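user: Kindly work through both lines:
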Amino acid sequence: MDSITEIRRCHLIGHESICFIALDLKFFRPTVCKHLKTTGASSYLLARQPQSKLGRISNSPRAMAGNRVAHSCPKLSAEPHNVAN
């Protein structure tokens, strides 16, 4: 959102060309033109929120302890051991 205001400020207040803005802010010229043509703030509205594909997520320690997964890597699945120096 900050980039849109920066593009508009450079063009409308600074009277800079579209090519100069594109080079200065490292945008493509069509992107600069698109942002100059927009009138309002962009909005992204959903009619309903998407459901989680993983199901309900619980952050409790008991729930997390019950969901341990065995690793296929032997170094990760082995019990930790003490190393004597």
The longest helix spans residues 2-13. The chain has a mean pLDDT of 74. Helices lie at 2-13, 18-25, 29-37, 61-66, 74-77. The radius of gyration is 26 Å.
